[in-house]
Each structure stands twice: as structure tokens, then as C-alpha cells.
Design brief:
Elements (H helix, E strand, L loop, with lengths): L2 E3 L7 H5 L1 E8 L3 E10 L2 E11 L3 E3 L2 E3 L2 H18 L6 E5 L5 E4 L20 H8 L2 H8 L8 H8 L3 H5 L2 E4 H10 L4 E2 H4 L5 E2 L4 E2 L1 H7 L9 E2 L4 E4 L2 H7 L6 E3 L5 H7 L8 E6 L3 E7 L6 H5 L3 E4 L5 E7 L3 H12 L6 H10 L20 H11 L8 H27 L5 E6 L5 H11 L3 E3 L4 H13 L7 H11 L3 E3 L6 H10 L6
Helix pairs in contact: 3-5, 11-18, 13-16, 14-16, 16-17
Family: Belongs to the FGGY kinase family.
Protein name: Rhamnulokinase family protein
EC number: 2.7.1.-
Amino acid sequence: MGVERSGTPAVSGAEAAGRPFAAVDLGASSGRVMLGYAGGGELSLREVYRFLNEPVRIGGTLHWDILALYRGVVEGLREAGRATGGRLAGVGVDSWAVDYGLLDATGALLGNPVHYRDGRTEGMAERVGERLAPDELYAATGLQHLPFNTVFQLAAAQGSPQLAAAQRLLLIPDLIAYWLTGEAGTEVTNASTTQLLDPRTRDWSERVAKAVGVDLSLFAPLRQPGDPAGHLLPEVLAETGLTGPVPVTAVGSHDTASAVVGVPADGERFAYIATGTWSLAGVELTAPVLTEESRRANFTNELGVDGTVRYLRNIMGLWLLQECLREWAAAGDPQELGPLLAAAARATPLRSVVDAGDPEFIAPGGMPERIAAACRRTGQPEPRDPAETARCVLDSLALAHRAAVADARRLSGLAVNTVHIVGGGAHNELLCQLTADACGLPVVAGPAEAAALGNILVQARAAGAVRGGLGALRSLLRATQPLRHHEPSGDRTAWDRAAARLTGGGKD
């Protein structure tokens, strides 16, 4: 298991002023434990431990290696303890959405959780649609159609020995928190991605569960961000060297919910793009949009912190480039990201683009070839080398960001004057500038660690180290985090012509 340690640098002014909180932030390719100090008008963050998240295929099924992830969490908390003299003011856990573990009556795990990219959900949307029409399902849950939503995973699992034996279902961050504390709960922002929750009531939809045959008693009681989630167990304290009691707080456990808390917006007229393996592009609302037009536009209504709704579209994201890099390395032609992006910046703009939301790109494997095939299908030239492939990916992502922001504004009625890019893509200056050019709006890039910062802020507020609503938390972010600004440039009609190629509206 690959790891990185940051060491223990000298204490900064922000650390001296604040209280130490650990954010466990699990992503699709790696996990990390981040140490944040919050309080006294200060907010700082540093990584203390990173570990790989490597799925495992067994018997034709793709699984998460959840025990390896838990080991990484414990080792990360040990490093956080070393950096703080064994004392933490709290711990919070966030991760990706939709996936879950099943427990038996004794609390034992019934097999490694299945990866959302596994093919077991093929055909499940159609099966569920026979019981509850897609428009009725959307009207009840407001969730974007994605073939791996939890409701379709549970449809695929029906009749299996594991589901028959299960007494408890815990989503991934809740499963990690359960192992740390011995207390089970279901945090609501992640629960909203199951397609079993009503975003208006912020509670389970009995109608949907009954229609699709899901037993809601499998789920532990719902928790809100900021609710207590227990304390680290004595054996966890012993393993990590931490001095108890150490509270665990329910944060926005869907990493995008935490990332949106970490958007340093000033006011309400903003769009956000949380970038990483996926790009989650949308706006923050006070109520869901459940119209048929919204469903046809494939927008989702996921719950956020402080009663908000994350109205957004899922876009394939930097997964496209990550998979290309993996394929090139496996073929003996490894590409360093920095030089590749520099070469992509010099490549012909908008020469070829693909639909970054196409389900064709969900599965791993053969990504450069699949991108080339998509270009052929739309009558565009194939990328000739890695630089042109990377430029195709980034132009395509910017085009998808443009469409999502425009649709979010139109469908919600929210005026938008700024786009915030947070997450790993905030480091990618070319992607940020292309997004500003495509949207015709200024882009504020950063913080890259928005999810961990949002995790820390919700913990710190629950502990009384910081105060106020989302506006106050975001003001603290603007005052303490480095941000970069990108102004739109160029001719937007070139983006219009590129978009038309994907819809059969013509070629340049």
C-alpha cells in the first residue's frame, strides 16, 4: 500500500491559534487524513497521511478493498496524533457516494463492498422502471439517472445470500465511522445519493422503497451534518496513540457536500464545479427542482449542509485523463502530467471534442481508443498523440462545464456571476482558463482541498471553534486560502460550433 507522510513541521501561527481536527477524506483513487486547525479567525490544513485506494476484481466482480482503506485511516490518525501530541479535537469522515457495506446481526461485514463501476447494475434501471416509471422516481427523489445509483445496486443484489443475511446497510463513510466508534448512523447528504430519499422532507421515501422492494429498516437512523457520531473506541485510541475522548462528528459525508461547504463564494450568485475523478457542476439552492424539464436535463438534487440542495450534473471529470495516463503507462509510453499539459496548451484548440457525460466512458480500460472512436462517430479528426488527446479531454470538460452551468442557471432561475472551481482540477490552470472561456464568466480556482476544508469547518463549528452559517464559513475561507482568478477570453462562438458537433449540428 503506497503511503506518503508529511512529517511534522514547525507549528504555524494558524495552528497555534486554532484547535486540531482530523478530516478523513476518501477518494476513488486515494485516501488521506488531513490535519486542520480552526479557530481564532484562522484556518489551516495540511496532509499528514495518504494511501492508495486500489479496487480488486475477484470472480468477475469489482470490489473496494475496504479493509485496506480502514487500515489507512487508522495509520493516518496515528500520524495526526504524532503531529498534535496525541490530542485531537475531533474526527470527520467523507467519501464518494452510492456504495455501501452490508453487516450481519453481529455487526460483521458480509463481504467487500462492490465498486460502483462494476457491471452488475446493467439493466437494473429498466427493471426498476417497470415498478416505478423514471418520471415518478425523479419526482419523488430528484436524483439524476446514473446506472450505479444505490437503488439500482440494491435491485441487482436482490435474492443474493449477502442481502438476505444483512441486518444493516452502511454507506462507505458511515461504515468507516462505525468501525471507529461502534455507533451506526446514516448521514443525510450521502443518503440523498441513494435515490431512496425525498429531498423535500430530507427523509426516506416510503413509496419509492416499497415500489422497488428495499427494506428501509436496513438503514441506521439519519444524521445531519454537525450531529455527534460517537467517540473513538478504546482500541482505536490504543492503535493510534490518541488521548481520549476524541469525538467523531457527522460532516457532509458525501465528499461533494463537504467540497461545496469549502467553496469560498461571496454571496449566493455563484456556480461551483467540484473537480476530481468526476466534475460535479451546479448551483446551491434552498429547495429542490423536481420538474420534468430538470429530469430530462439529467440534473440531480442532492442534499447539502445547513438545509441546502446541491443542484448539479455529474460529468465524467478528470477520470478521462487519469485513465489515459494509466493506459499510456501500461503500454510503455508513460506521460508526465506537467509536460503533457504544457503540450496540450499548445495543441490546436477545439480540434475534436467528445461528450464528457456519455456513459460509454464510465468503465475503465482503453480510454484513448474510446475517445478516438467517439471522435470518429461524430465526424471529427482523431487525436494523433497524447497531447492532442489531453487537449480533447480538457476542451470537452470545459464544454461540459459550460453546458451544466448554463442549464443550472436556466432550470433553477438563479443568476450566476462567478464560477468556482474547487478540488484537484483547481490546480489545472489550463482547465480553469478553458472553463472561464467556455462559460464566459470569471472563474475562481481553489481551494484544491475544498472537501477536507469543508469537513474541518463543519467539525469546528460543531465544537464551537468557529461560528456562523455558510456565509461566515466561506468568509473564513476567503481570508485564509490562496485563490487564483481567471477572466474569460477569446471568441465564444468557437465553443458554440464545438457543441454543435456533438449534437449533429455541423462541423467547423
